[in-house]
Amino acid sequence: MLAYILRRVFQSAVVLLVVGLVAFSMFRFVGDPVDNMLGQERTQADVERLRETLGLDDPFPVQYWNFLGEAFQGNFGMSYRQGRPVAEILMERAPATLELAAVSGLFAMSLGIGLGVFTAIRRDGFAANAIMTVSLVGVSLPTFLIGILLIYLFSVELGWLPSFGRGDVVRVGGWSTGFLTESGLKALILPSITLGLYQMTLIMRLVRSEMLEVLRTDYIRFARARGLRERTVNFRHALKNTMVPVITVTGLQLGSIIAFAIITETVFQWPGVGLLFINAIQFVDIPVMAAYLMLISVMFVGINLIVDLLYVAIDPRLRGDTARGH
Amino acid sequence: MARLSLAVALTVLVGTTTHASEFRWASTTDPQTMDPHAVNSTPVLSFLNNVYEGLVRRGKDMTLEPSLATSWEPLENGGGWRFYLREGVTFHDGSAFTAEDVLWSYQRASSVLADTASWFSPVAAMVAKDDYTVEIRTKAPNPIFPDSIANWMIMDKGWSDANEAQYPAKDGENYATLHANGTGPFLLVERDPGLSTVLEPNSDWWGEAEHNLTRATFTPIQNPATAVAALLSGDIDMINPVPIQDAARLEQAPGVDLIRGTETRVIMLGFDQTSPELLSGAGPNPFLDERVRRAVSMAVNVPAILQTIMRGSAEPASQLVPAGLRGYSEANAARPDLDLDGARALLAEAGYPDGFSFELKCTNDRYLNDASVCQAVVAMLAQIGLEVTLDAMPVRNYWTELRADNFDMYLLGWSPGTFDAEHPLRFLAHTPVADLGTWNFGGYSNARIDALLPLIQSEIDESARQAMLDETAAILQQEVAYVPLYVQPLLWGVRDGITVTQRPDNFFMLRWVNLAD
């Protein structure tokens, strides 16, 4: 067991290092940060001085090595654009992204399960078919288009919700939250729907197909035969047994909600890490790009590691395999 | 816990208080820094002009006006300028403004760590005669020096010392990156980089307020569609720029006004005029021949570009600066007419009767509709038998490519920082040597222009200076050093009832904003 865990942790570390190496080898194709940092009247000497200070003339493995050395000491460098420590900027922006991800995850889960059950029970009903058709549209439209459509409908035409930003936020310790003000909550609605729509459709379709499967099984028929109420049969007996794959998929989707937040954040000018990353690309802000990519890969690798370890905990056969393997 | 919830309640209260005449505006770019000497770019200088002030400033029509200096005059021997400073001015922190702060700001803004050092390259020394008189001695007579320092902003020496912000920080952080202490009409109240920046009027300002604002909030909105939606929904009072394709729609939308003008930026085509061969290696470089360059200038249908791609929002350009700027050559105001037969004849004469193939480099996110303009140029040149491969790329890769000579022809926009025709001569027309001709990627070179530049820089007599500028404009047209296409438009969107002033340098001054009552 311990050997398996250690091996998986080691593999995760290797994945992280490779992601970082690939990222650094790409950075020089993103552009030259010096052009953005100096105005049009700069001299060649200014350019060379700045390149020297930033270490941009070093070959990329050297730059990567320096980055790693500093990162291990918790120092992610200074943002070229803002001139402030990257770690500080990321910490400032993280609450916005995490709150958005949490709300849209919640939205996707609750509505996805609810609609999934509904469309499974009323599989031939008009409403169920309508929902399935509309959900197809939701999946096939790109996120930024959905976002813009929502903004035009609810902000420009109806004037109900803000068109961009986070509204008023309240600082609780080092965390800025939009949950405690009316404008903050209003501002969460459209971006959460935009971000969660795809996941919601996914969960809905998954729940629906699982439910249809379960509803055909013998124990459901027996439950019906015993005269149990329809609601008890559907929710206590059927839904419960569809939840295992749903939870697995949802867990894995959590990472992509945070990563996909980039597009939603750009459309809604949502001040999270995704927007920070887009700005960093436009400005060739290498320290911010590097830290963001490492952060996202740590998150994905971490989630996968936990899932792997959970499988081992749940499934004794995996443990047996590993033991024999050694 | 009780204290925490009280603090929370207070923050909520402050956060949601609505301000009677609060003004909210948005632009695509957040100013990188609040340090007026760290970055020489329009977003930074435009924003900080509300907070900091220079010795001189520009008025609504770009004319030079007194600001922290009440008057100025050339030194007796022509070796510089004397500025008489305004008395009784205080910085936002209450300390008095004196000549010491001017000298300090000169040191700071001209240091190697500053991005504004080039403004001071003509300066030999700066001397305080008394607390309110400063002499700036230049290496040679310099008639346009006051014009070139309109964006040189004065910082308080005491404040910079106390907060350890003695030098501008370009790749790091210091106190002045996030805080500001100027003499200007607005105070910096809150600064969240990339999120929002809040200004409030300075009640102790020396000038008379022409605005009626009590608070102004700036938010960067990168996505143009979001910005337009925010303006239409009333979440934002003013956006800059309006995407060209949305201009007509905003003009018709109720509750919103479109403000059109032209920027001082001339969009032009440049040529590789030094490489012996084309980039593809397919043969000798035809652009070394003046006739080929002229053929290009005759084949590009600028009115058609303006009509279709710029949707009638831009003005054609004939030289490197737009009409109306100081030093613009009235004598050379004519553009070459569209003449496809003439262009074909010139190509045949130059030895290319069947045309040739080459590569055009172009940005796709730097100038308004830049990639579409380049596509149109490709189609227009095809009519005279030139087969153009278009390579459009983001600006963050663009300058690197141009500096590495990876082009046959390229697109460039130039806005003269001094609003004077001498500026593009120095950067675009002078032979590239040391600190001159630094943006002359094509390597255009003309001995007469190189000889005229220092004379223009030091000529005090206006008409003699203009005569030399006319001569350079004529040479550049004669040799087709560049093909100026058009002057880039400025498109701002504001809510009805708000008056703003649009200046050709695309600076946005809060002190001229008035909200409807």
Automatic annotation (TrEMBL), chain A:
Q: What does UniProt give as GO cellular component? A: plasma membrane
This protein's membrane topology, according to the annotation, is: Multi-pass membrane protein
Where the record annotates domain ABC transmembrane type-1, the positions are: 94-311
By its UniProt entry, which SUPFAM superfamilies does this protein fall under?
MetI-like (SSF161098)
Superkingdom to which the source organism belongs: Bacteria
Q: Where in the cell is it found?
A: Cell membrane
Keyword Nucleotidyltransferase applies:
no
Q: Pfam families recorded for this chain?
A: BPD_transp_1, BPD_transp_1_N
- Write out the GO biological process terms: transmembrane transport
Cite the PANTHER family for this sequence: ABC TRANSPORTER PERMEASE PROTEIN, DIPEPTIDE TRANSPORT SYSTEM PERMEASE PROTEIN DPPB-RELATED
Record protein name field: ABC transporter permease
Species the sequence originates in: Meridianimarinicoccus aquatilis
Automatic annotation (TrEMBL), chain B:
Q: Which GO terms describe its biological process?
A: peptide transport
Query: Where in this chain does the record put each Solute-binding protein family domain?
Result: 64-430
Q: SUPFAM superfamilies in the record, alphabetically? A: Periplasmic binding protein-like II
* Location(s) in or outside the cell: Periplasm
Claim: Signal is one of the keywords in the record: yes
Q: Which residues form the signal peptide?
A: 1-20
Annotated GO molecular function terms are:
peptide transmembrane transporter activity
Give UniProt keywords alphabetically: Signal, Transport
Q: Name one GO cellular component term.
A: outer membrane-bounded periplasmic space
The UniProt entry lists the main location of this chain as periplasm
Quote the InterPro entries the UniProt record gives: Peptide/Ni-bd (IPR030678), SBP_5 (IPR039424), SBP_5_dom (IPR000914)
Record has Metal-binding as a keyword = no
Which family does the similarity line name? Belongs to the bacterial solute-binding protein 5 family.
Q: What is this protein called?
A: ABC transporter substrate-binding protein
* Annotated source species: Meridianimarinicoccus aquatilis
Q: What is the lineage of its organism?
A: Bacteria, Pseudomonadati, Pseudomonadota, Alphaproteobacteria, Rhodobacterales
